[in-house]
Design brief:
Number of strands: 10
Shape: elongated
Largest sheet: 6 strands, antiparallel
Order of helices and strands: HHHHHHHHHHHHHEEEHEEEEEEE
Number of domains: 3
């Protein structure tokens, strides 16, 4: 980061002009990057903090580190710090590692302080988006400083020329560098082998290498003109890779949503709703906003239902993979129950993801087996209380105190969650929540791990060894 203010006479003009020119461009780039993560978008406040870190924290660290590196190079070459060769060497050999490391600290904080590090919130796509936004923040501050200096030294022509070159042509530069580091952090989350610890470092090294290549061409070959060609060519290749990666990862999340929604069409959502939310056009900026506008329930309620469906799909897909890869009981995710309840509430309130659902003249047809459920028969499970009241389940559901409150005071002995009822083909199984306060009892026997349940079985909570049974509920499967 080479900054030399020179004359300060016209700074009062160039600073607001640079801010006015650069900020709108960066906001457009921000929207483009974020729009690809359509299925599990990161909270805006987290992205804002990432942007601020790139624009302020990483820039401050980089200015100090770059300055020290430039000083050491001037000592080594025995030349003054403002010598062109010192500038070129510092930009090529000091700036890439210092600046990429400074930006990576923001990614480290995002992943270190996250409460839920799962695929949909901190996977590869999320890492690329986090890194890209941090890079945009860095570009914002760096571009403003460079453009202000150029305008102060060369006037309006220099101001516009450098703005076009840095912000328009190379505006995604730092975003693409730091996105590689973010990809490494995202791979760390989803991998299970010991190699996962190397992923952030490899991503950081990749970002440094790309940064080094661009600065090398710009610092040592720019005067001959060939450097500009190499810079633009390298940037074009990196941009193609960056957006190709974003789209590929976005389509990967779409596939997980399709898999996770198996068995829900005709249960929680209609076929028309399903067709809309799995459309690949979702990745196009603005498309989803356009399609959700004017739907029954209002935009924000419809978007909330859509996000809850995506959340539920990711959890169900993860559970399915755990079942295939591990002989132990699947992990019970309390967010699953929250998402299911929110979707059911939205349905009751008339919130729809597709128009004119009530005007269909023929019943909905199930989705093709290749995209939706392959289950032969949908068997409903109900838990029936002593007074005849019951609660029914048609899909995998996390069950806890809130679900059984209607059955009486003994619901206080149930935890949140207590167990999960899950369908396996045409059968049902119960999965005990390991953090539940009391044991889950199936026919008075403690459930450890997961067990099949049958029509006529009795589910309760308590202590098998002490003969304590609270709130027995009869299983009815139809």
């Amino acid at each position: 980061m080479r900054i030399g203010i020179g004359s300060t006479h016209f700074l009062v003009i160039w600073i607001p002009l640079a801010i006015l020119f650069v900020i709108p461009a960066m906001m457009i780039y921000f929207i483009i990057i974020r729009s690809v993560d359509r299925y599990a978008p990161e909270p805006l406040w987290v992205l804002f903090l990432c942007f601020v870190w790139g624009a302020v924290g990483a820039v401050i660290i980089s200015m100090v580190g770059d300055g020290l590196g430039q000083w050491f190079i001037s000592l080594a070459l025995q030349r003054p710090m403002d010598d062109e060769s010192v500038f070129a060497a510092a930009a090529t050999f000091v700036a890439p590692p210092v600046e990429e490391f400074a930006k990576a600290l923001g990614l480290l904080a995002v992943y270190a302080f996250a409460r839920r590090r799962v695929h949909e919130t901190h996977g590869p796509l999320d890492g690329v988006v986090y890194g890209g936004i941090i890079g945009l923040g860095f570009s914002l501050s760096e571009d403003i400083m460079y453009i202000v200096v150029e305008g102060n030294e060369s006037g309006g022509a220099g101001f516009i020329g450098l703005y076009f070159f840095r912000t328009i042509l190379l505006g995604f530069g730092h975003a693409t560098f730091t996105a590689l580091t973010g990809l490494g952090f995202g791979l760390f989350v989803i991998m299970k082998s010991g190699w996962r610890w190397l992923m952030p470092l490899l991503g950081l090294a990749g970002g440094m290498l790309l940064h080094f290549g661009r600065n090398l061409f710009a610092s040592f070959l720019m005067g001959d003109g060939i450097g500009l060609v190499f810079v633009l060519l390298l940037h074009a290749l990196v941009m193609a890779f960056f957006f190709g990666l974003l789209i590929w990862l976005g389509l990967g999340d779409r596939k997980r949503v399709i898999n996770g929604l198996q068995g829900l069409v005709g249960v929680l959502i209609s076929r028309k709703e399903y067709d809309r939310i799995i459309s690949p056009w979702m990745l196009l900026p603005g498309w989803n906003v356009f399609r959700l506008t004017g739907l029954p329930g209002g935009f924000w309620a419809v978007r909330k239902k859509q996000l809850n469906l995506f959340k539920l799909a990711f959890i169900r897909n993860r559970v399915r993979n755990e079942r295939e890869e591990d002989d132990g009981p699947p992990h019970i995710d309390p967010v699953e129950a929250e998402a299911t309840a929110a979707i059911q509430l939205a349905n009751d309130q008339g919130v729809r993801l597709a128009p004119d659902l009530t005007d269909e003249s023929s019943p909905e047809e199930p989705a093709p087996p290749s995209e939706l459920t392959r289950d032969v028969t949908l068997r409903q499970l109900a838990l029936e209380g002593p007074d005849g009241r019951s609660i029914s389940f048609r899909i995998r559901t996390v069950v806890g105190k809130s679900a059984v409150n209607q059955f009486g005071e003994d619901s206080q002995f149930w935890s949140e969650p207590q167990f999960t009822l899950d369908r396996t083909g045409t059968d049902w199984q119960i999965i005990h929540a390991s953090n539940a306060q009391n044991e889950t009892l199936l026919n008075s026997k403690s459930v450890s791990g997961f067990q099949l349940v049958k029509d006529g079985d009795v589910l309760a909570v308590g202590r098998e060894s002490k003969g304590i049974i609270k709130l027995p509920l009869k299983v009815r499967i139809s």
